Amino acid sequence: MKKFLNQVDQMLTESLAGFATAHRELVQVQFEPTFVSRKQKAQNKVVLISGGGSGHEPLHAGYVGKGMLDAACPGQVFTSPTPDQMLAAAEAVHTDKGVLFIVKNYAGDVMNFEMAAEMLPFEHATVLTSDDCAVVNSTYTSGRRGVAGTVIVEKCVGSLAESGADLAACKALGDKINLRTSSIGVALTSCTVPAAGRPTFDITEAEIEMGVGIHGEPGRRREAMRAADAIVTDMVAAIVHDIEAKQLPGAGDILLLVNGLGATPLMELYLIYHAAAEQLTAKGYQVTRSLVGNYTTAIDMAGASITVCLLDQEILKHWDSPVHTAGLRWGC
Amino acid sequence: MKKFLNQVDQMLTESLAGFATAHRELVQVQFEPTFVSRKQKAQNKVVLISGGGSGHEPLHAGYVGKGMLDAACPGQVFTSPTPDQMLAAAEAVHTDKGVLFIVKNYAGDVMNFEMAAEMLPFEHATVLTSDDCAVVNSTYTSGRRGVAGTVIVEKCVGSLAESGADLAACKALGDKINLRTSSIGVALTSCTVPAAGRPTFDITEAEIEMGVGIHGEPGRRREAMRAADAIVTDMVAAIVHDIEAKQLPGAGDILLLVNGLGATPLMELYLIYHAAAEQLTAKGYQVTRSLVGNYTTAIDMAGASITVCLLDQEILKHWDSPVHTAGLRWGC
């Protein structure tokens, strides 16, 4: 394993310290318990707090800022944050309008956010994201995994919260977007967790892992490496099958997110986007909004995921509204 | 080699088509000759045209848009674009205020942009970037290589051009920034050029290439892998030596750019940033502006570069001004 680090157990602290310095006009970091929060504490709004294991950057600390999260609680790499982090974050950022936790559906995250919620002295609710249509139940998960669709939930609910909406409305929008969002990932290589020092799984030059999780969890099956268009065809088919099975209302306008898992060049991500957009258009969808880049990573995995969110006017409005974070920024 | 592609010779075309669709409110792409230009043609300003081999995304197409480039001419991967591309781009985007070419100092790029300049029927000038302090003369270069500092030149000169400044002023600012900017890169792994199908160079788990170029050109020396702080110490020392030798005016305010070469996670880039910012502060510099991420890549190389630009009021003003491109966006 070759990585830029000093000591494995100091890696997160040093990286967060760098993050906080590089974006000091936007965020601040507290340690022990560790959380990242906005530099300018928001007033009179539902506060949004997310978190999870590190290694998925810019998720979640990179989405702290105006129009998105109020705080993020990073655990060690691929390790859930602990309830004291969520409690300290909530204590620091809450106003009188309640706390919304946005949690990716992994057993450890769910358990620790639930424990924090039970101890929380403020009105609160939780949105669980589970957009990964690849598999039901996985290494760390009962049900479906939460992956890159979480970014869309955090962006849009962040916008609604900024407008002064109440806790129930924020939770309802988050749940709606999660229902209307479907993702699937594919790995060309494993990731390497620093503390483990070796790749999470073995994979040959001739293979891909279709439906891989963002921690390197097994997907649907190990398949033969093939042309990008053929890989994308299977990913788009899985997503469309998932979306159509839900018989959701909507005109077919979609947000298409092509997400890099860490080591895949932008040139390849745009090539995947090109194939996915053409195939989705041929199936009757209109790609109304697009996002291409590294938004929910799996450390240094070569691979990518495709996420489709079935838009409606409410989601579109909140997607387009201004956001100012380290990882997403427009309109300000 | 495992990459997301269909046929190697179609990779650039498909990727650019995806790029143009994903950012269709911002840019458009023309093929044969190939160039990317703004959707809204600018009026009454010096137009900025850059280009170079592909594989460094988001450089340069990702920097086309308001406040930065008017057009970018992408060659095949690590292959210079041809003069007909620059001529077609200039014909499409020019106004009556002249054309400024921004060219990284590689022999092929320099030659082809010079040939285009000779045939150009408009007033024109060229800024050559050569911020890489690692080596003088290299595989594809006489003199110093142009690397990630090019982003700072394109951003700031783009801002000045937007304000209506004339060609001489734009060239002067570009030359000034290039003089005040110093970079050095380090590779943990090689990159793999799709058409070659195998890594550009061999490197063991125990080695790093200090001073590597963005095409995998040899750097200063092959060194032992070691702690990130120690690697950064040598990189910062090289940059500070280079800057101090020039005895430039300035108060010591700097822009610090930590750039990923393609496969390095954000978590490691922020750790490098943390070390570099502390070391530069200890040497008397004030890190006034920061940028951390993948801005000038070397396909899928694991590695990073550090760039320092010695700010003055003029550069700072143009760095902070609004920009709206696929790769850099703020203030709009």
| Helicity level of chain A | 25-40%
- Give the low-confidence spans of chain A: none
What is the level 1 CATH name of the largest domain in chain A?
Alpha Beta
Biggest interface found = A-B, 62 and 61 residues
Q: How would you sum up the major sheet of chain A?
A: 6 strands, mixed
Give the distance, in angstroms, between the N- and C-terminal Cα atoms of chain A: 40 Å
Oligomer: homodimer
Q: Give the rounded overall mean pLDDT of chain A.
A: 97
What order do the helices and strands of chain A follow?
HEEEEHEHEHHEEEHEHEEHEE
Q: Helix tally of chain A?
A: 8
Strands of chain A, count: 14
- Strands of the widest sheet of chain A, in order across it, are 1-2-4-3-5-6
Structure class of chain A: alpha/beta
Q: Mind telling me the C-alpha Rg of chain A?
A: 19 Å
Provide the domain count of chain A. 2
Residue share in β-strands of chain A: 15-25%
Q: Specify the CATH architecture of the largest domain in chain A.
A: 3-Layer(aba) Sandwich
Please describe what this structure looks like.
The structure is a homodimer of 332-residue chains. The first copy, chain A, is an alpha/beta fold and 332 residues long. Chain A folds into two domains: 12-180, Dihydroxyacetone kinase, domain 1 (Rossmann fold); 181-323, Hypothetical Protein Tm841, Chain: A,domain 3. Helix content of chain A is 32%, strand content 23%. Chain A is built from eight helices and 14 strands. In chain A, the strands form three sheets. Chain A has a six-stranded mixed sheet with strand order 1-2-4-3-5-6, with helices on both faces. In chain A, helix 6 packs across helix 7. The mean pLDDT of chain A is 97. The interface between A and B is large, with 62 and 61 residues.
